[in-house]
Amino acid sequence: MNRGCLALAGLAAAALIAAGCSNTGTSGGSGAAGGSASKAHAGHPMSAPASGNTVRTGKIGGAVVLTNAKGFTLYWFAPDSSTVSKCNAACASFWPPLKGPVTATGIKGTFGTIKRSDGSVQAKFDGHPLYTFKGDKAPGQASGNGLNVNGGLWHQAVVSGTASSPHPSGSHSSAGGGYSY
Asked: Which ranges of the chain have pLDDT less than 70?
């Protein structure tokens, strides 16, 4: 097993241990303060405050996925809802929430925000709050895709293409499955 897989396995194990201590407090919001949404369609830029994060796309395996401005893969967490993040406390230290609002150009889908339990604002895409993963050490990696930790399954945020199913536990590849939009 190479060093990268060992480090990821250790990180995943720590995340599982931390899950038992994590706060699954609610966060949410709707209306103007916590649930604002904007449509961004190909060729139609979104209007968002200049202070927001930039979301881009990148190709991983056969899928086009959302990335942050640095090219790191964005993820969504299956237990979340369109208004509530279930990844708080220790979970959020491994899966940092993407701060909202975001700026995106040419990405088909709906962006918005939720208000987290700590009062911060998190970006969401097509109803899914967005996160990065501490296990991704370089742009273009999706080592968090398909992990079942912190009480649920993690998916890379896919915007187009066909993504294969996540690899079985212990085998991590950047060509994992996801939720197709």
From this structure: 1-52, 161-181
Q: How many residues does the chain have?
A: 181
pTM above 0.90, yes or no: no
HSE value, Cβ hemisphere, 13 Å, CA-based, for 176: 27
Question: Rounded to an integer, what distance in angstroms lies between the CA atom of residue 5 and that of residue 124?
Answer: 29
H or E element at residue 155: strand 152-161
At 70 the pLDDT is 95
Question: Could you give the CA distance from residue 59 to residue 50 in angstroms, rounded to a whole number?
Answer: 26
Tens-digit pLDDT profile for residues 48-88 = 334 468 999 999 988 999 999 999 999 999 999 999 999 99
- The helix or strand, by DSSP H or E, that contains position 108, with its residue range, turns out to be none
Give the DSSP letter string of 54-93.
EEEEEEETTEEEEEETTSPBPEEETT--SS-----THHHH
